[in-house]
Request: fold
Amino acid sequence: MHKSFFTPEDGRGLIDFYREAVRTRSYSDEEGELARLVAARMEALGFDEVFIDPAGNAVGRVGDGPRILHFDSHMDTVQAGDPAAWRADPFSAEVIDGMVYGRGTVDMKGGLAASLYAAAIAKREGLLEGRTVYVTGSVCEEYCDGVCLEHFYRHSGVRPDFCVICEPSDNTITLGHTGKVQARIVTQGVSAHGSAPEKGVNAVYEMAEIIQRVEALNQDLQSRPGSGTIVLSHISCDTASLNAVPSRCEIYLDRRLRLGESTAQVREELDALVAGKRALWEPGTLRRRSWTGAELVYEPAHEPWRIAEEAPLTLACNAAYKAVFGAAPERYDFWDFGTNAVVPVSMGVPTIGFGPGAYKLAHMVDERCDPKQVEDACRFYVQLMALL
Reply:
């Protein structure tokens, strides 16, 4: 299918909405205004069903066929930091030298806008026979990969046949991403007055050797090709006062997994880190409240994944890419960060990534994206909806 269904009017509407979304601040747990904006635009574009689910995800449906396609983009962004450090106000969506500047321009309001408009175009052009397309603007991905989709699938009863994660990939077909395990290690000590430390057990000293083990493990991993990383990302201690021996110390670890590594392997590594010490490790469970008040419980333990190059979803993406860009893709990508894909992948749903923006600019000062990439991503999504 090589016909372009994307009109100049579509392009103007898409980019206007994209910039409006960037101007709408949507930090994690504060996505309500953007969710309402997304839902309103879905309704204006003629979606067959639009709702905001109990977790706060904005959901739109077009079509009613038996084959279900799901396009997901998270609405939340990281903090913008000091506006004075930016070339343009981070919520202005100002265009400078052909690039739209602002927090979320890359991660990931371009993918959100492109998938939303693509679904509307696919419906308008009669491309959805036998298909149902869901587009979600999901919540709190920056802290809780996939928890929002667990809520969406459970609330709606939807189980897609294919899932496309619209995270930034520089419009490169992305076949998978790294895995992740996050964990806490806690050491227990015995409090004592600072003038008599020999009467206590310093929990921080107990942790010191474990920290050295963490660093040694990371060095070992980096010496082995194809291995991931481990980093100590937070440390704290409990002490009765500034003149007392700490009774408790806690560190938080972030372990990234490459293909060929597993969460079972990481559990063995964690056992070794605490061996022989007054210490225990536990999953780094996070609990948050969405903007609706719904409880989000995140268990950060995900396997790395990669869809096969010969999978039907990959082949359909190849065809869509050729229809839009005039040639077959020269390469595929593999994200070194986590996404909401962890949930459909764990369900056995064929999943792939494709979205506008250079992901190395995500979370950065002067985050920016070429709006032409957003338009091209929309064209790609339309073609893919017609092909699957």
